[in-house]
């Protein structure tokens, strides 16, 4: 049973995996696994970039996304005549001949990881580079993994991967994805604490946040900045204390990360 493990803490957003996928499949027909990917309009591997927080407390998250080769694959259920099938190694493939004209295969994917090739009249997606795994190529791994220079992407036998603490995209879909993520980004609260009387940042201020009954702590750095990481999506209260001064701020990470900007401690 093959699976992917992607460590988001290692990913630097270089897009090498995305570029490698394009280079491997654009202009190259790897039948019977897949026909050529168009140069535009499709990303069988795509690095989604999300800006989080507010200026000046902004972070960018990068999440490489692809077909999840789901155990409970909706595309297989939507396909006719066995046009979408699962190999013995658990990679889910689309037969480019049998799938001709079956646009419902595209519509069935809740991750939007299946694309429609208007010119060829077929649905297309990541194949896990099955042609490399089965062929005489010396590197028997998907091109995205081979291209990743920071080793953020690992492909192999699920039983041999360290999946403890990993997550999948949208587990509520019930598709049982075979692409696992480590260090999935969680909510944060950030800000800069300063003393308005002396017009200086406050270094070493104690920052405490309570959210869903859990306490999170940190201190301001040499620039008066603080970052509270891995918060739940919830309502909470922030307490800032230094030199006998205390300030409380209510916050919400239900819908987004929170950048509080400059915070006067008076």
Walk me through this protein's architecture.
11% of the residues lie in helices and 38% in strands. The chain has 266 residues and is mainly beta. It folds into 2 domains: 2-182, Alpha-Beta Plaits (2-Layer Sandwich); 187-264, Sandwich (Immunoglobulin-like), CATH 2.60.40.10. The strands form 6 sheets. Strands 10, 11, 14 and 17 form a 4-stranded mixed sheet that branches. Strands 13-12-15-16 form a 4-stranded antiparallel sheet, with no helix packed on it. Strand 12 and strand 13 (214-219) form a beta hairpin.
In CATH, the topology of the largest domain is named Alpha-Beta Plaits
* CATH class category name of the largest domain: Alpha Beta
Q: What is the mean pLDDT? A: 96
Q: Could you tell me the radius of gyration in angstroms?
A: 23 Å
Helicity, in percent?
Answer: 10-25%
Broad structural category: mainly beta
Number of helices: 5
How would the global form be characterised?
A: elongated
- The termini sit apart by 60 Å
Low-confidence stretches: none
In CATH terms, what is the architecture of the largest domain?
A: 2-Layer Sandwich
Order of SSEs? EHEEHEEHEEHHEEEEEEEEEE
Largest sheet at a glance?
Answer: 4 strands, mixed
């Amino acid at each position: 049973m093959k699976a992917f493990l992607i460590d988001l803490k290692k990913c630097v957003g270089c897009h090498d995996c995305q570029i490698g996928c394009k280079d491997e499949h654009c202009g190259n027909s790897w039948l019977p696994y897949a026909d050529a990917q168009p140069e535009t309009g499709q990303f069988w591997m795509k690095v989604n970039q999300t800006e989080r927080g507010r200026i000046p407390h902004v972070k960018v998250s990068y999440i490489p996304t692809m077909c999840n080769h789901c155990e409970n694959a909706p595309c297989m259920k939507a396909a006719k005549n066995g046009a979408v099938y699962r190999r013995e190694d658990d990679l889910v493939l689309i037969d480019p001949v049998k799938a001709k004209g079956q646009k419902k295969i595209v519509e069935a994917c809740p991750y939007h990881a299946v694309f429609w090739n208007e010119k060829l009249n077929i649905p297309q997606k990541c194949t896990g580079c099955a042609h490399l795994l089965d062929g005489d190529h010396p590197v028997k791994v998907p091109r995205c993994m081979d291209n990743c220079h920071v080793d953020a992407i690992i492909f192999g036998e699920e039983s041999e991967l360290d999946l403890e603490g990993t997550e999948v995209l949208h587990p509520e879909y019930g598709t049982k994805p075979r692409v696992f993520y480590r260090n999935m980004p969680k909510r944060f609260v950030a800000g800069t604490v300063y003393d308005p009387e002396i017009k200086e940042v406050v270094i070493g201020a104690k920052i405490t946040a309570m959210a869903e009954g859990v306490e999170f702590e940190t201190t301001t750095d040499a620039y008066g900045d603080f970052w509270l990481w891995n918060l739940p999506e919830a309502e909470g209260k922030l307490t800032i204390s230094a030199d006998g001064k205390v300030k409380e701020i209510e916050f919400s990470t239900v819908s987004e990360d929170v950048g509080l900007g400059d915070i006067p401690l008076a």
